[in-house]
Amino acid sequence: FVSEDDRHLNLVQTLNLGREKLAPAIDELVLFQPGDLPFLYDLEKVLGFQGNKSRDIILWLNSRQKMFPEFNEKPNSEFVKRNYHYRILNDNERDLHDLKEPNLYPINFSRMESEIIDYLHSSRKDGQIIDAGIKMALKNPIRIFKTLPYLVDHFFRFRTQIQQIRPGDKYQFGMSRKNFHKSISNVLNIPITTTLHNDPSFVSDVDALEDWEDFESLTHFAGNQGGLGNIHPFGKELMRFREMDMPSLKKEIPMYQDFPAYLNRIYQTLEMGYEPFDSNGNYVSPNANAPEVAQAYQWYQKNCAIIAQ
User: Fold this and answer.
1) Which residues have CB under 8 Å from 56's CB, separation 6+?
2) Residue 116 pLDDT greater than 80, yes or no
3) pTM recorded for the entire structure
4) Cα–Cα dist 10/25, whole Å
5) Number of CB atoms found within 10 A of residue 183's CB
6) Residue 5 pLDDT
């Protein structure tokens, strides 16, 4: 563990502090993972991924089709609602996936400058990754020549392939998986790979009030179904933390002293049209009983049971 520098709160500085503390070996990967993924507890598949031994970056891409294979026929099965701006053709020319940018990736710090990591991470949303790739390529013109065969193939074929599979589809960026691997590996001059996973917890970050409601609704639902331990392997520890440590945190952090009132004020300020708590502090969001909540509970319950075996 290393504390951030209060005078320089930025990703590059924090990565450099962590790198100095860890002192990773030249062929050692470090897991880059944000802290706002509260139900991402199954990391064994990430740590044991076969590509870890031969690649310097492994991007765990959020595939809508992998995570929610029935979202077209059963919309409620897609219990995490996100925007999927990217497209990728997987292992064959008909295997089209809607993608959202990765939230975590093992990375070899010794082979990549922290500024590049910051560049890629900060530009990964809203299609800005395209601009980032162009700027990085212009700084290394020799590398761009190595990518030309894959880029030419991409420009002449990809859009036509997409329109044949899904006419009228709109997206910000897309590429075949093969061309993406080859072109990015050449631009960065390091071997990368991707994997399209089927775990919704990888995409369930908390960036908005709606995201907070998803988890608040889920935990309340779990409380009525036998407890948080049914859907989280450390559920009992989390409940013990709430009972033993939250009272002291409430004394130190004003936000927690009356959390329901704090959230209600935010909802009022943003004119959300409702408040998530009543006057007694009970969670009464109109979304608390949405069908997606039960779907989420069933998925996490099943996943948690598998991990416990």
Assistant:
1) 29, 107, 108, 111, 112, 190, 191, 192
2) no
3) 0.89
4) 24
5) 23
6) 82
Question: Are 234 and 113 members of one domain?
Answer: no
Helix axes 177-188, 141-165, angle to 10 degrees: 160
Nearest to 230 by CA among 296, 174, 176, 173: 296
Q: Which domain holds residue 245?
A: 209-308
The CA radius of gyration of the chain, in Å to the nearest whole number, is 22
Burial class of residue 252 (count of CB atoms within 10 Å of its CB; 0-12, 13-18, 19+): exposed
Task: Give the Å distances, CA to CA, from 158 to 31, 63, 155, 162, 169.
Answer: 32, 18, 6, 6, 12
Residues 223 and 79 reside in one and the same domain: no
Give the chain's domain count: 2
Query: What confidence score (pLDDT) does residue 257 get?
Result: 94
Q: How far is CA 189 from the centre of its chain?
A: 25
- Mean pLDDT along residues 100-107: 90
SS3 31: strand
Whether residue 12 lies inside any domain: the answer is no
Mean pLDDT score across all residues of the chain: 89
What's residue 109's pLDDT? 82
CB atoms within 10 A of CB 59: 23
**Helical ranges in the chain per DSSP H:** 11-22, 44-47, 64-67, 114-122, 129-139, 141-165, 177-188, 209-223, 235-244, 246-252, 254-257, 259-269, 291-308
- Give one DSSP letter per residue of 53-105, joined into a string: GT-SEEEEEEEHHHH-TTTTT-GGG--S-----EEEE-SSTT-EEEEE--S-E
